[in-house]
Amino acid sequence: MSRAVKYLIAGVLFTMTTGLATTTSAGESDRKLTIVNPQNLYDPTPNGYSTAVITPPNARIAYISGQGGQDNTGALSPDFAAQVEQAYANLNAALEGIGARPDQVAKLTVFVVDHDMYKLEVLTRNVVEMFGERLPAQTLIPVPKLAIDPMLFEVEAVVVLY
Questions:
Q1: What does pTM read for this prediction?
Q2: Contacts of 36 (CB under 8 A, 6+ apart)
Q3: What one-character-per-residue DSSP string does 83-106 give?
């Protein structure tokens, strides 16, 4: 066996064993999402999202199903802004239900019926209210229709659990 192969094997074994031995409790900074907005790309923060989010090592991921604008009785306002506000309240309730906070949301996917700039403004305002400066990555998908006819908005989330 060549010397290079021996060093490679030794290095792999060292990395594997030290990696297993260093699984100690993480510090607070090891448990936060890292928000990335590269300077050589368009700054998405005025529109309520970040370019990328890096999850911490050893984090578990939770997926929250699409939350629409229905209240706890199932009622749905015909007003887009009211639906978005209720959908984010529902998302917050789902986060609380899994023991998470908004700053643990890594990614949002939003679906907007008949998207336009007014709806983008409403959406952005609600995202900033919920997430502040720690904006998750986000994808907006314009759609012609959602699960039920009066539904105009839906948001789903990918959440990092520590």
A1: 0.79
A2: 50, 51, 52, 53, 54
A3: HHHHHHHHHHHHHHHTT--GGGEE
User: Rounded distance, CA 69 to CA 85, Å?
Assistant: 7
For 63-94, the pLDDT digits (tens) are: 999 999 999 999 999 999 999 999 999 999 99
Q: Is the dihedral of CA 113, 54, 46, 104 positive or negative?
A: positive
Q: Are 140 and 126 in contact (CB under 8 A)?
A: no
Sign of the C-alpha dihedral computed for residues 122, 125, 71 and 66 taken in this order: positive
Angle between helix 117-131 and 80-97 (nearest 10)? 30
Two tokens, residue 23: 């699984």
Structure tokens of 7? Answer: 């060093």
pLDDT of 55 over the 60 cut: yes
Task: Give the residue among 146, 158, 140 at the shortest CA–CA distance from 83.
Answer: 146
Report the DSSP beta bridge partners of residue 64.
157
Q: What is the pLDDT of residue 10?
A: 41
Per-residue model confidence (pLDDT) at position 5: 39
